[in-house]
Amino acid sequence: MRRGSFQDETVDYAAVGATQANDLLQYPPKGSLPAADSWRIGSGDDRFATASEALLSWGALKGAGLRVSDVRPAQGPAYSGVSFDSEGTPVAPSRLESDQRYDADGTPYAGPGTTLRVHGRVAGMRADAELRVIFVIEEARRVGFALGTVGGSMVSGEESFMLEWRENDEVWFTVKAFDRPVGLLYRMFKGFVRRRRKALFAGYLRAISPLFATPGS
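Below the sequence we write its predicted structure tokens.
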């Protein structure tokens, strides 16, 4: 099992880890718009392993049309701290001891404390941001991580990506997020925030799921 988390005051929101709360949709952080969805993306060990590799190598972000750059793993010994179980309950993670992994292009995989920049447009609007990996979970049947905004984004908040290989052999992909509008247009028209989030979810699913056609199909 590989599990770790990192919390740092440089993120630009207070509710670090709130995407793991079971009641996120009912009680989101103040001023933010919550979103969550889950999709069955196949079944079996191979599907879970393939999806996990894609997720940890930033496949979801890239599938949403974002360019990932300046990926910087945390310096020094791996971070340990609060992480979360499948019910959203805080637990003490084991210390990370594994070596940093890289994709074929030499880009580091997601790890707790990693910072990165994303560039692109979502739903026709700028989606540039600096992000930090808040936590990473790698277990036999559950893999995922959360990203928090550090700055330079049109919204402030967090999103988490989780893959689960369930006991019935089905593999499920769950994304949760909360967005607090920062850009003037987003503050004035919150419908743009929801439109942006819907487009991001569709892109994430397209990247991770071979069964993707259209959301809700």
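The two ends are 34 Å apart (CA to CA).
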